[in-house]
Design brief:
It is built from 13 helices and nine strands. The protein is α/β, with parallel strands linked by helices. The protein has one domain: TIM Barrel. The protein has an eight-stranded parallel barrel with strand order 1-2-3-4-5-6-7-8, surrounded by five helices. Helix 2 packs antiparallel against helix 13 and helix 6 packs across helix 7. The longest helix has 24 residues. The chain is globular. The N terminus is likely disordered.
Length: about 375
């Protein structure tokens, strides 16, 4: 009898795909992170983080290094950029290195994607400027129609992005993936498009179902108050986190609270986040919106002395940022419960890094 059971177990194991155990492990991490975000929502706690943009990945001191140098604390959230991974040699490896190191310390990684317009040639190949400019709605309609030349170009870029996302998955990184953001603005090719819900669903279909990337937590984020949010809400592939990007000089701006209110009409219970901000919001805004995370953009937004524009009214001083993140509701990386950090890291979290010594300012 025992021999028969052993034979069945061996045969069953042979039938399991080689990466099935890896899929189970990454799925468990993803489920643990979603549970943690829901817990933050109910406990009225907020993670903080900052963005390391594509050009910073090549610098000795990036915005995360400067953040830690000014504040003396490791943020729980690291923001990164998927743009550049296709065209710029070495960037993909640096992106993955940053993401893996933060994950192994038990921190969360959020990834924006300023996708280039796949229907036009951009002389820089892939950059912020390549994502700007309006796409005629009829071009987008053809891009979403299988079998067209436009659709083939779009899917080719999505598959290129999937290659990087798979490398992250294989390295054990769960990604808070934030594509097609600020869709209610007119500065990106996907902006103000009636077909935005179909575009989101198309991207979801390709990455989740065709590419079988199970390490993505989908984050939908508009710009400021976004009163037209319902027009851009996905029809079939509902996000797991929703938020808004707010760049306002006034810490009490109604853009914070109205952005939250308009999302709650569509996403009543799920985690809400301030997915990009410039100037820090007030305590009243935090109390009214209860974000699970706040991502402060890098550069001058984390230290006004680093801004090329002086004075910078929308920037934060290092002192203001330090005061903000020491509020009782804010969570640094060390405040994340050990069991959660272990889940994110996939084992015992790695020690905090020895960061480079950064100059206090880039200005005289």
């Amino acid at each position: 009898m025992r021999a028969w059971i052993a034979t069945i177990l061996l045969v069953t194991a042979a039938l399991i795909p080689p990466d099935a155990h890896a899929e189970s492990a990454i799925a468990a991490r993803k489920a643990g992170i979603l549970k943690f975000l829901a817990q933050l929502q109910s406990e009225r706690r907020t993670l903080y983080g900052t963005q390391v943009n594509e050009f910073e990945a090549f610098l000795r001191c990036d915005s995360m290094d400067r953040f830690v140098a000014n504040i003396g604390q490791e943020p729980a959230l690291l923001g990164l950029e998927l743009m550049f991974a296709q065209e710029y040699a070495g960037y993909e490896d640096l992106l993955i290195k940053h993401a893996v190191e933060h994950t192994r310390r038990g921190g969360l990684v959020t990834l924006a994607w300023h996708a280039r317009n796949p229907l036009r040639v951009c002389v820089r190949g892939e950059s912020y400027d390549c994502s700007r400019g309006r796409m005629p709605p009829e071009d987008l309609a053809r891009m979403l129609e299988p079998g067209t030349r436009e659709n083939a170009l779009w899917i080719a870029d999505v598959k290129a992005a999937a290659k990087t996302l798979r490398r992250l998955r294989d390295a054990g990184v769960v990604v808070l993936f934030r594509p097609l953001h600020e869709m209610n603005g007119d500065w990106f090719w996907w902006g103000r498009q009636p077909s935005l819900p179909q575009l989101w669903d198309s991207l979801y279909q390709e990455l989740e179902r065709n590419e079988r990337l199970d390490n993505l937590i989908w984050v939908w984020s508009g710009d400021r108050a976004n009163p037209e949010a319902a027009s851009y809400w996905p029809r079939s592939s509902v996000p797991q986190v929703a938020g808004t990007d707010v760049y306002e000089n006034d810490p009490n701006s109604v853009q914070f609270t109205e952005g939250h209110a308009n999302i709650r009409k569509l996403f009543a219970q799920g985690p809400f986040a301030f997915t990009e901000i410039g100037h820090l919001p007030s305590d009243a805004v935090l109390e009214a919106t209860q974000p699970v995370w706040i991502l402060v953009w890098g550069g001058g937004f984390i230290d006004a002395r680093l801004s090329p524009r002086q004075p910078c009214e929308s920037c934060n001083s290092a002192a203001d940022l330090k005061a903000f993140i020491t509020k009782p509701r804010m969570m640094r990386l060390a405040d994340v419960p050990p069991a959660v950090r272990k889940t994110i890291a996939g084992g015992r979290p790695a020690p905090m890094p020895q960061r480079p010594v950064c100059p206090a300012t880039l200005l005289p």
